[in-house]
Design goal:
Residues 217-411 form the Tyr recombinase domain. Strand 12 and strand 13 (433-435) form a beta hairpin. Helix 4 packs antiparallel against helix 5 (127-141), helix 6 (159-168) packs antiparallel against helix 7 and helix 9 packs antiparallel against helix 12 (307-320). The longest helix has 20 residues, at 85-104. The chain has 440 residues and is of the alpha+beta class. It has 17 helices and 13 strands.
Length: 440
């Protein structure tokens, strides 16, 4: 059945305004309101849930007769489907405004807002924040030939933006990049910068699938006891600048075999020399964020201090005990760095053969070789536990007991062994003393 309409294009072209507003009806509730000032407005009058309502469909002649009829028909279809056309129009406008707002929000802005939430208190430094800032820089600016996506708007972000970066970095950095990207999207959602019903494109990335397997980088380390004894003697007579803080740091590193970064940022507040304990807060440990997110142990790291370590620390306290850090840096440097320790080792002639991190491998190797009546003196897991590198399976077992008495024994044994090695006395399996010239 052909619909009958009251208005035509010719009629509309000859419409004149009057002293009072009047209507020109087209049928089905659609009409043109003609105002005294000459404006002509399309209106659709309808009833929804027992209430009379009015829907604006635009102004003539910007909206021609055919366009007004189509808008009218669309509104009637919504009404027949049980939807209020006015409410639907409002929702569409809000969605369009939200979409337009999203197009103005770039990934760079979202990343910066997330990074702001990570800032440490004013005047404080944070290794975690520095790492997060580095991940944001990679995501925004790229790394190597892999481009960043700072200018991409939030409605454009796809997995393809992140993949080139993940292929350009190593395994640990890949994990941190994915973590940062996910958190940025979560922050964007919380601040209304992300489409409500759209999932994050970074949510289901497998750390391993499609990427080369992680290969541990073996840092140079001396594992021969005689050669290690030579190194210890050289450290003992090392004379660094000023108060020889670097020499003290190398000695403490040898005695405790913690990570070099842990030595460099050590604070006096974390030491109890009376109890002979060094308690490193969990937040300062390597990969602390990833470990907590993965449900691993979040305990502080306890380093028992041997008698030799306590004596060394008491001497050091006379030099830096009034400050926050054991090894404060020079100039703008907050503390000494791992590179400072490595450069000192280079100066001693150990470039390429032993680095600051190598003390961990040395201690692990020599302690694991120790035997009493043909059996291990110390369990491998105990040594790993003291080095704060138990994997998830063994940690689940050994975290139930901190095994502190055994670790105190371990650390004192190691310090005593260092004294022996420094004097170039090494016993073979038959109890024969071997004396080596450390200057060789």
């Amino acid at each position: 059945m052909k619909l009958k309409f009251a208005l035509t294009d010719t009629t509309l072209r000859h419409v004149k305004s009057r002293e009072k507003p009047y209507k020109l009806t087209d049928g089905g509730g659609l009409y043109l309101l003609v105002n005294p000032n000459g404006s002509m407005l399309w209106r659709y009058k309808y009833t929804f849930e027992g209430k009379e309502k009015l829907l604006s469909l635009g102004q003539y002649p910007a909206v021609k007769l055919a366009a007004a009829r189509k808008a009218h028909q669309d509104a009637k279809i919504k009404l027949q489907g049980g939807t209020d056309p006015a409410a639907a129009r409002q929702a569409e406008q809000q969605a369009a405004e939200a979409q337009a707002a999203l197009r103005e929000k770039t990934f760079s802005k979202a990343a910066d807002e997330w990074l702001d939430t990570r800032k440490p208190p004013e005047g404080k430094k944070s290794k975690r924040y520095d790492r997060d800032a580095r991940m944001v820089r990679y995501l925004k600016e790229g790394k190597g030939i892999a481009p960043g996506f700072a200018k991409a708007t939030m409605d454009q972000i796809e997995l393809g933006h992140l993949l080139p970066l993940l292929k350009a970095v190593n395994h640990p950095t890949r994990i941190r990049l994915i973590s940062a990207a996910r958190k940025i999207i979560s922050c964007a959602k919380a601040h209304g910068m992300w489409p409500k019903d759209r999932p994050s494109p970074f949510a289901d990335i497998d750390f391993e699938a499609g990427f080369a397997k992680h290969k541990e980088k073996h840092r140079p380390a001396i594992t021969d006891p005689v050669k290690f004894g030579h190194l210890l003697r050289k450290i003992e007579i090392y004379e660094g600048r000023g108060d020889n803080l670097t020499g003290h740091a190398l000695e403490l590193l040898a005695l405790t075999f913690v990570r070099p970064g842990t030595i460099a940022t050590a604070k006096w507040a974390h030491f109890d020399l009376k109890k002979a304990l060094w308690v490193v807060p969990f937040e300062g440990l390597k990969m602390a964020t990833e470990r907590s997110e993965a449900g691993k142990s979040v305990d502080d790291y306890i380093v028992p201090l041997s008698r030799q370590a306590v004596a060394l620390l008491r001497e050091l306290h006379k030099i830096t005990g009034d400050g926050e850090y054991l090894f404060p840096g020079r100039g703008d440097g907050r503390t000494i760095s791992e590179n400072t320790l490595n450069y000192a080792l280079h100066g001693l002639g150990y470039k390429g053969s032993h680095c600051a991190h190598g003390f961990r491998s040395t201690a692990s190797t020599l302690l694991n070789r120790e035997r009493v009546n043909g059996r291990r003196r110390f369990e491998r897991e105990l040594i790993e536990m003291q080095q704060d590198r138990l994997d998830a399976s063994t940690r689940a077992v050994y975290d139930r007991d901190d095994r502190l008495p055994e670790r105190i024994e371990l650390m004192q044994f190691w310090a005593d062994k260092i004294d022996v090695l420094r004097e170039n006395v090494v016993r073979d399996g038959h109890g024969v003393k071997i004396v080596a010239d450390w200057r060789a």
